Amino acid sequence: MRLTQVIGAATKPGRLANALSILREDLHERDSQLEMEVVDLHASTLQTCDGRPDDGYSHETQAAVFAVSHADAVLLASPVYRASYPGVLKNLLDLLPVDALRDKPVGIVAMGGSAHHYLGVDWQLRAVLSWFGALAMPTSVYLTNSDFEDGRLQSHEKRDALAELARACINVADRMNDCGFGPAPLAARWS
Description:
Blueprint: E1 2-7, H1 15-30, E2 35-40, H2 59-69, E3 73-79, H3 87-95, E4 105-112, H4 120-132, E5 135-136, E6 141-144, E7 148-149, E8 152-153, H5 156-176, H6 186-189
Parallel strand pairs: 1-2, 1-3, 3-4, 4-5, 4-6
Antiparallel strand pairs: 7-8
Helix pairs in contact: 1-5
């Protein structure tokens, strides 16, 4: 089983990256066989999606697309940026082939300074995930500044919620056995 975490922030790793690092430790303690990969959009210099053939992009760009496309389950983690998700995450999603997330469990983790925009990232990502035909988990995790102390996730409630979301993605992926969830998304029918 392979879980890919996407850290959809253009800024240097901070609280969101820390929360996902703690999640990886928790998951590894429970299942040492679980393969986990991280696509950190701050550390990865992805080329801008411009419609060229997939093999025309840099190795680093192709590796990020491969990591998401070949995962059994995906966690998309994003800071709230101007009441939405950042352009670096949108660029990665634009680079993905239509079938990269089809019928794949995807969990959403968002991080904001306060609870003010708690659904901004959630509802916008759900629309894009629907376009892919992804199986977005019905609930998500929203982190705020108050969940952290000295940059480290301290909220046991949020730590448990992250683990529960990741396990739900993994459990759904494990039980799917190539089961589809209806017809191909419209985007796949027109590409």
